[in-house]
Amino acid sequence: MIRNYSELENIIVELNSYISKEQGKRERIQEQIEENNKVIKQIDNQIELNEKVVVLLQKTSEFARNQAKLQIESLVTNCLQYIFENNSEFQIEIEESYNKPSAEFYVITKDKDIIVKTKPELSRGGGVIDIISLALRIAFMQIHKPSIEGPLILDEPAKHVSNDYIYNVAEFLKKASEMFRRQIIMVTHNNYLSAIGTNTYRVELNGTVSHVEKVGQN
Question: What is the pLDDT of residue 89?
């Protein structure tokens, strides 16, 4: 119970002081809310930017992958057509499985209106596989980033190619070495392939000892 005017004034002063303090708290809370809203907005902007970067990287990766795919298909196709003297085409099909790309290789042959699509291992025997493997090695070395330095080392690169086409293999290797300015070191039992070498060596095994003899130089 308020007894007099002076006591009432004291109560009013206390109330005003309390109100001022609460107003100060409210202002600090409002300032904190505004700061938090700014931080949230910055985070939202960063999330949006990150999402755009992810999309850009995905598109860039997809573009680079498609470019590499086209380059590999072109080189292998040219190799097949040059060696086997036909209209075969090499095709790569890329699919996404569990967020990881997987590739399948095919050989496409055309005869008038008929198109035959087969796996390399089912196309004209082992010779086609040998040539595709050879062309893929060259293609990967040429398009790899960063570039792969050093020679291309081959071990019987045309083991299953018939003698009808072995001369074409030799010419292809010679032209590929010149075009890409890359040394080729090759082990082979085929005289056509050994004949294209700038330097040719014969290795003979006598018991447990290998004898190396230089037999040719172009």
Answer: 92
CA separation for the pair 56, 62 (Å, rounded): 10
Q: What is the pLDDT of residues 145-177, one digit of tens each?
A: 888 889 999 999 998 898 899 999 999 999 999
Q: Is 93 exposed, middle or buried (0-12, 13-18, 19+ CB in 10 A)?
A: exposed
pLDDT of residue 114: 85
What is the residue type of 84? F
Pair of tokens at residue 117: 């699509």
Instruction: Kindly list the domain boundaries of the chain, sorted by start residue.
Output: 58-217
Architecture, CATH, for domain 58-217:
3-Layer(aba) Sandwich (3.40)
Strands 184-187 and 152-155, sheet pairing: parallel
What contacts 188, CB < 8 A, 6 or more positions away? 154, 156, 157, 158, 194
The two structure tokens encoding residue 156: 């019987």
Rounded to an integer, what distance in angstroms lies between the CA atom of residue 5 and that of residue 109?
A: 110
